[in-house]
Batch of 4 targets.
Target 1
Amino acid sequence: MKGFKKYLALILGAAMIFTLAACGGGSSSEEAATDEAATEEVSGGDASVSAAYDKLLEGLNGDAVTDGEEIVVATSPDFAPMEFVDLSRSGDEQYVGYDILLAKYIANHLGKKLVIKPMSFDAVMTAVATGNADMGISGFSWTAERAKNYFITDWYEAGDNETEQVIITTKANEGKLTSADNYSGLKVGAQGGSLQELLVNEQLVNKGAELVLMQDLNDLCTALLTGKIDALAVAQGNGDSFVSANKDELVFTGFQFEIDEKYKNNVVLINKDNEELGNQVNEAIAQQKKEDLADTWYEACQLLGQIKTIDELGYDENGNKITEAAE
């Protein structure tokens, strides 16, 4: 449970703090104490967790030269390692993850000051459509519906977060949900408006599964832990974060969705009428690919999200990648 509480403190935004803390149980006063203790533990007791991420952040901050104008990015910070909250940080710096690094990289390319607007997943799309945010960067996959309503950028690589779409469940169901036929009569959770919703509808509902939608992934995790749903459809990276934080309660089912190539990477959502910005963002994404930054970013965010350890990823305590030459 200690690891779970630490996870809660890390990935929870201020607007969602009491909802997610309730997943670990306790009164509001106990929740506040848990949050404070977990923040102190992460920031003081395990500096190596954030070392690699901090180096990347410092580099991006050092490269920033702005013209004074802002670029507003909407994101739903409930999706480690792509976007989540580190309560040991303050201001916009508390929003961390691969997509946040990408947002900073794009802002630098544009010469703008980055402003992060945290909100629910569905609200991100609304904010972009209504002009209340310039971009939506929140682990979005390409879908035909989004292509109709937004300027969809070129894809960017996001580790195994989109290439593998999986299902997690409780220990009680371990080994029982390996094929689509096993889900008949079961409640399978997914985030509303997500790729996972589409996949459950296409591949499990026709096998008798009942789709349960919520807007917040942490609420879905709570629902799974408390028996309100039987299984939860997630991207692989997000599944890693939930399972690693709840090793005694949650497991991967072994089931993987069949994924069309067009869904296998992430995109940025931009207002349909802002083609100029869309083209500029595509330039930044192309440069990010040219510089081959994806794997380094993703690993640093796995470390920060407590998903994998420095030993698993080959990093030292100072956040440096261990190479064969260094060994």
Target 2
Amino acid sequence: MGFGSYTASDWAKLKKSKNLSAGQDVKEVFKKTSCDPKYDPKFIGTRECFDSEDHPHSTPIVVGLDVTGSMGYLAVKIASEALNDLIMKLYSTGTVEDPALMCAAYGDYADASPLQVTQFESDIRIAEQLLELYFENGGHGQVVPTCLWEFLSRHTNIDAINKRKEKGFLFTIGDDANIRKSDVGDTVKRVIGDDIGKATVNSLLDEVQKKFHVFHIMIGSDGNPDILSGHRIVIDKSDIDIIPDIIIGTIRMQKGEDYDTVLGDCDKIKAPLLGNALSQLSLTGTGGTLRL
């Protein structure tokens, strides 16, 4: 996937046709009442992110949203504004060459559909597919981004890695740091169908890091200071407008730019909030192993 280009006019047409606005209820934006099989990892062999004539240097970027009950406001914000803002800035700033975005929705381990994944796309299909995801609105206290890690490590075929040994970028966003650690294998087998044997949360994290730089944007208080230490950014709920800027800034710093340069290019109004966010990162090296 990944052909075509994302344009402001295509987004304007989609937003008008879907009547999207930040003030809508989550059920007005995400209208699916069950998971579409084309986004259910049980029915997906491999998601591909290949170079093309349009995009010869594809860079995979995954935005994973916590879709448990408390996160409806964020999903609406991402769908109606922030995703478009992120894509336009990726293209306008040249932060990465040929960005190809996948959206993912992960929930609680007890949900009927704890994981959904779109294709890697480079045009308006990014937003179209996000709107087709099912917002289950569940939550029993233990989220499973681990299933997303396992899927990305074992069910993706990526030219950036295969041809250039360049990792993609994974950003999960949510307000729950309570990752399901028990029965990891049972959960992955139920959700994806893979028998992962004695794999653990940390071994799955180690594995996905071979393909992706992994980051988590935590909304609200940090209930678990150990989660992705140095690759975790905590922001207030009132500051979600800067999430696209956080993602852009984090990618730039991961690629070697220094904090002051990145902050100097930021909108002056956003600079204090973005500075506080990016100062939480520890990106002195790219090969270190994160631990929970």
Target 3
Amino acid sequence: MLTDILLDAVFDTLKTVPFLFLAYLLMELIEYKFEDKAAEIVNRAGRSGPVLGGLLGIIPQCGFSAATANLFSGGLISRGTMLAVFLSTSDEMLPMLISEHAPAASTVKVMLVKIAVAIVAGLVIDLTPAAHRSPRIHELCEEEHCDCEDSIWVSALKHTGKITIFIFLVNLVLTAAITFLGADSLSGLVFHLPFVGELLTAVIGLIPNCAASVAITELYLQGGMSTGAMLSGLLTGSGIGLLVLFRMNRDWKDNLKTLGFLYAAGVLLGFLAGLLPIF
């Protein structure tokens, strides 16, 4: 039985590799052409920053959330603009959905919900006194990148290799759970409980590692998570944005404030979006 579980996990993972590589190759090309321009646009956006941040953040690339964290740390953009980017950033969601052959309509709906939530949350947060900081340009001393000095082919291969490992581990755990517990038991896990699922997956999404979005997306596709819980986890999943924010901004109280806003928005808006009849 253990051999069957291992083989199933291996085969399920290998089937996704070609699609993952093509998705990451496209993402690397977009990032190479787009990331610097996107950061410059958001920097000059002013009050419309959350709108542009929500729209641009959904475009797959590895460094945009990190770039906006740097800009906020330097006081050059508002908290609402940065959080709009964090909420709309898809991290590994899009290549996962593509590689697993998820229905195109469902993928588009998830992306549209993330954009809408990001814009609304960002605009609301910018109405609060905590939205803006004084310029501190000297803190913008470096930017985080994902080995983007490599060619797009090498970078795509590196991304594919790293995510394939995570996908295999998640597949292994899920295959074992389905084998020993049964599919019905898996669908009845705590992630299906109203609001409780959103509370838990939003915490998982805060982990600044691609494994979080991989696990959330895979569990949702396997039927082990409600739509609302999935959305909450993917909304709080901002890639390495939070990691860069805590590294660049030495005001930990201010960082915890950002973390609280992100978590609350992910839980509440993920729960509400999950109730919509569009899914």
Target 4
Amino acid sequence: MGKVSVQEIKELMTATGVGMMDCKKALVEADGDMDKAVELLREKGLATQAKKSGRAAAEGIVAAVVKGSTGVLLEVNTETDFAANTDDFKAFVAAVADTIIETNPADVDALKAATISGGSSTVDAALTELAGMKIRENIVIRRFTRLEGTLASYVHNGGSIGVLVKLDTDLSGDAVTTIGKDVAMQSAALNPAYLNREQVPDEVLAKEKEIMLAQMAEDPKMANKPEQVRVKIVEGKIGKYYKENCLLEQAFVKDDKLSVQGYVDAEAKKLGGSISVVDVVRYERGEGIEKKEDNFADEIASMIK
């Protein structure tokens, strides 16, 4: 592949934080494969683990609601943030969340067929009315997760990110909820890929080791070391990978002398019981949704105007 588009270069720059020429070279070498280009940049030590995508964007609300021992994390999308901020839209999202808690639908289709909480129409009919008569924009119920047990939630920035946390504990009360919320806030802020090291797939670890060895091969100080020495160094670096990518092993944002697991254990001990974080679900509004982008030249022109 001799040429790559300006848009492809821009996307790789956004995803990795690497300069334009290095991104262009990586894309050419990778024959336009974005994931391979990211891997090449990482092997050269130019990029850390890349962001999911610079192109993911959509408006709407992520809601996290807990009522008693049942909770829901829900994403509903709109075309504009103006529509998402209307009282009608917010009321619809709240009613849909209550419907999920009350009816436990199997999926989005089953949810749309259910009678909306506090009303007489189906969720789908309420959505159609809201979209056609009031909001006048396309509205999509994208996804939801419903959990039962000891739960805590956190919503960031009015619905840009939502997190639902499930705890296994012999304790109860506001102190437990606070601990769960702290864990949820950590997930919202740092977006770890996994809950703990046991969740990291073997193939992911194998690829990380491969990239670390390639990085050492590019480093004059490391390239001449015996292979067995480099392998041992890589094994040590895997511990750092766990601390960066596993929620319970991350440094706790409110006290970086503790890991998240250390924080939970210390607070549980103060309360005279035990607490385990067993599930964390995180939604970021619009992640994975491609939003129509302007032509790069048009974007520059619009900025000048």
